[in-house]
Design goal:
By secondary structure, the chain is α/β, with parallel strands linked by helices. The chain is built from nine helices and ten strands.
């Protein structure tokens, strides 16, 4: 579903790459957790995958499409929830989700069905027709998630997706993520909360100083991911 080969990105004026020689393959039905300190390279990797950032070297293949050579086809297969819940604040929640549905050519019948389901899941039914600028931080995060998943992408990318969510909504989205991969979809997400990673992930990768330092895919390793994380940080 996702294949990254030798990805390297250096920002203008930087003394060293933000990410260096990243290699990663994700399969259908997988929840992959991406762990690292602030500035380790998680968000840069995500922005390169989604085409938000260009990169200096390497190849990114999404659902068989090269993001550099066939960007529209590659982007149609993914959904991205950034860590800043970027939305159009002068739109209502419903208008924003409709805009996202139009971008991905989701039919009116299907979008309305999914909006109803997500609104009930997130207790957002009464807020859908209010302006996004009136929302709380957590409500903006919810509407960003709803807009990013309305087309049911094969690859779902989430950068700190549960920040600002109330415990009920956090549980609902975690359960949805678990069900979502059962449909053959793939999820990659970053989080600073190790308990969430341990609960959700089938595999975990640790990135440090722009390089992936290790992969962990057994229940025991993921259960002890904190000790792995600390060992890598101290290298």
């Amino acid at each position: 579903m996702l294949k990254i080969m030798n990805l390297t990105k250096t920002y203008k004026g930087a003394l060293k790459p933000a990410v260096k020689n990243i290699n990663l393959s994700l399969h259908k039905g997988e929840i992959f957790g991406f762990l690292g300190l602030n500035g380790a390279g998680k968000s840069t990797t995500f922005k390169c995958i989604t085409g938000i950032q260009t990169f200096d070297a390497g190849t990114i293949i999404i659902d068989g499409y090269d993001i550099s050579k066939e960007p529209l086809k590659a982007k149609q297969a993914l959904g991205f929830i950034p860590d800043n819940h970027a939305t159009f604040e002068e739109l209502t929640g419903r208008e924003y989700i409709y805009f996202m549905a139009d971008v991905y050519q989701v039919s009116k019948e299907l979008r309305d069905e999914r909006i109803k389901m997500f609104a009930e899941m997130f207790s957002m039914t009464d807020a859908l027709d209010a302006l996004i600028k009136t929302y709380s931080h957590g409500m903006k995060q919810k509407i960003a998630i709803m807009g990013g998943i309305i087309h049911y992408p094969k690859l779902w990318i989430l950068d700190e997706p549960l920040v600002g969510l109330d415990p009920f909504s956090m549980t609902e989205i975690k359960n949805f993520m678990k069900d979502y991969i059962k449909l053959g979809n793939t999820i990659i997400f970053s989080s600073h909360v190790l308990e969430i990673v341990m609960d959700l992930c089938t595999r975990v990768g640790i990135i440090h100083n722009g390089e992936i330092k290790g992969f962990f895919d057994t229940k025991e390793d993921i259960k002890n991911i904190y000790s792995h994380y600390e060992a890598i940080k101290n290298q």
